[in-house]
Amino acid sequence: MPATLYLGYVLAGLALLAILASVGFGVGWLRHRGHGRGTPQYARGRLARRNAVYSLAIGLVLAGLCLTPLCNVALAGDS
Q1: Backbone angles phi, psi at 4, to 5 degrees
Q2: Beta strands in the chain (DSSP E)
Q3: Distances (CA, A) of 69 to 4, 6, 40, 72
Q4: CA-atom Rg of the chain in angstroms
Q5: How far, in Å, are 20, 30, 48, 56, 63 from residue 51 at the CA level?
Q6: Could you read off the pLDDT of 4-43 as tens digits, one per residue?
Q7: Cα–Cα distance between 48 and 52 in angstroms, integer?
Q8: Would the pLDDT of 79 be above 60?
Q9: DSSP classification of residue 1
Q10: Residue 18: helix, strand or coil by DSSP?
């Protein structure tokens, strides 16, 4: 018998990927800190900081959706 795939599993996986991306962008932000304004390295750090915040916010929203009844929706398998 195939196992049931719930929407919560998908949401949790996407939240984990978004939070891992946030960590990766955070490393890029730390790598390019300390550069002067107007340099390409400053722009890379600024972009990495922005992407880290956005991906962390998306990851937290997806993780928050896992706490709702939406998580118990069956996508495939036995219902």
Answers
A1: -80, 135
A2: 5-6, 74-76
A3: 16, 11, 46, 6
A4: 18
A5: 12, 13, 5, 8, 18
A6: 888 888 999 999 999 999 999 999 998 888 878 888 878 8
A7: 6
A8: no
A9: -
A10: helix
